Amino acid sequence: MSRDEVVVSGVGAITPAGVGVAATWEGVCRGLGTATRDPALAGLPVDFSCRVPGEDIGAGLGVRNLWRMERFTRLALVAAVEAVGDAGLDPATWDGARVGVVVGCGMGGMHAMREQERRLTEQGPDWVSPALIPMMLPNMAAGEIALALGARGPSLAAVTACASGASAVATAREWLVAGRCDVVVAGGAESATTPLMVTGFQRAGTLSRRGEDPAGASRPFAADSDGFVMAEGAAVLVLERMRDLRARGGRARAVLAGCGVSTDAHHPTAPHPEGRGAEAAVRAALAQAGAEARDVEHVNAHATSTRQGDTAEGRMIERVFPHGPSVTSAKGALGHGLGAAGAVEAVLTVLSVERGVVPPTANVGAPAPDLAIDLVVKKPRERPVPVAVSDSFGFGGHNVALVFVTG
To answer: Is 336 a catalytic residue?
Structure first.
């Protein structure tokens, strides 16, 4: 293995399955949906979502000025602190000028915007918080993480809709290969389950209407899927070069061997029906990794539970991987975390590579009959996963693929 390989040394997550990577992994391996009725959405055509449990997010971190952080930023900070600790790094002793932060977010501070709009309308301009703008900006997750950890290298918000978290991880790899950083804290965060945002997605025809069974509503690759379930959460990976990790005696959880990006240039929201842009991203990631398609044992799919998107992705998987690697989608259990989803799924892919376990796709007994993919269902599958792909797609035609191999 090359001393310049980019490796994952730490992971962190906070999702509807719970706080921490262990809770998230246990939740997806259990194979049960987390969606429930959401009081904030009462009276709407879609009144359920996948929320992170608890309201006092980040209170135990001991971070100053937590009050000024919007919910998505707090989620990101919780995941980042866990990931840095998991990597065995101490921000008090590292060279902060060589540490970068890149965090993807599709929406930004939707809760703050809603609350401050209410104050303006009901109470007047003097009641609007002076912290509104920094609370709602999508880049503030990266900014507040850098501030809390003393990371003074480059920082960036990757905004590629539902591919944002994966875009952040791909960007982090580029920074390390280019020598811009020695450590990069990278991931995604989102919390946009407000009435307006949920209604907007519902009006666009993308959300499940299976309100009689919220926990079973998200059904990736299923014949009877009718849309995704809105979710929130965050996940962060700590990335380093292998030579630096070895020099400090750290542990490589997996190698991020290759990344690929592309754009459909097909439609503002609909994917290319044959997944051609997605295929280009996957093939580019494999080429960078020096891997053949037949080497891939597992695909952690984007698969949101929309028939159009799942069919396009399924066709791509059939075409690129005719040998039939195992396929799973975490969105059956966790819902669709928008800008956080790609990072959450990257963390889960790292764990599959590290542990040789593929979680099941919740709420699905078998893939739709027109999809010839080896979808893992009902229970986890234990098998070696030396090479795995995690793919993510977003409105605007953004496609990102990440290739992880054993470390």
So the answer is: yes
